[in-house]
Amino acid sequence: MTPRLTRAEYLRVYKIHVTFDDGAQGIIDLEDELWGEVFEPLKNTDVFRRFRVDSDLDTIVWPTGADLAPEFLHKCASLNPLAKSTGSC
Known about the structure:
alpha+beta; 3-stranded antiparallel β-sheet; NE0471 N-terminal domain-like
């Protein structure tokens, strides 16, 4: 079953606090995940901050067309549950 992202809040440079419908939540650090043409514009933190939760896709999306798989975000949140993230994801 695909996890459903219910909330995402920008914290600071490339870090987002995410919450899922199964109660999982955590802080994800996407700085090292922004590679490739579709993610290049997100290296600008002003652009990065403009994400929103898309309830159809159950993940975060950016106006640039970039998005991340909810499974990936859920895994990252599980690795960094409400703790300061120390690395990628």
